[in-house]
Amino acid sequence: MDIFISNTSGQPIYDQIYSQIKGLIISGQLGEGEALPSIRGLAKELRISVITTKRAYDELEREGFIYTVAGKGCFVAQKNVEMLREENLKKIEGLMQQIAVLAASCNLTEKELIQMFQLLYREE
Q: Domain HTH gntR-type, which positions (predicted)?
């Protein structure tokens, strides 16, 4: 599992870890029941504090993406279809907001925007 930490990013390190692992789970690159690196192992590999790694894992567990088995480690939880749907809906809403702003700056009408989307959707 490749996790990249950016020291120049304004995003906290624990959040970078959390976001990247969450993305791997949602995309299916990390499958259900798959073991995550140990908290200590990942901290050593990334050269960061164990506390920082634990905070990222705690957040993932709190949101239901992973679960912990005492003495064995952390594993990818069974995918909650509704939770994944909600995550994707949030992403779509964010992208649609960006599209609306860009469309307004180009003086596109709602009808023109819908027509563009319909053409793209049919191509898929």
A: 11-79
d(CA 50, CA 38): 10
How far apart (Å, rounded) are the C-alpha atoms in residues 110 and 51?
49
CA–CA separation, 93 and 35 (whole Å): 32
Residue 12 is predicted with a pLDDT of: 96
Straight-line distance from the first to the last Cα atom of the chain, in angstroms, rounded to the nearest whole number: 30
Instruction: With a cut of 80, say whether residue 8 has pLDDT above it.
Output: yes
Burial of 84 (0-12, 13-18, 19+ CB in 10 A): middle
pTM of the shown model = 0.69
pLDDT for residue 42: 96
CB contact set of 4 (below 8 Å; sequence gap of 6+): 16, 20
Give CA–CA dist 21/102, Å, rounded: 31
Q: Which two tokens stand for residue 67?
A: 């679960």
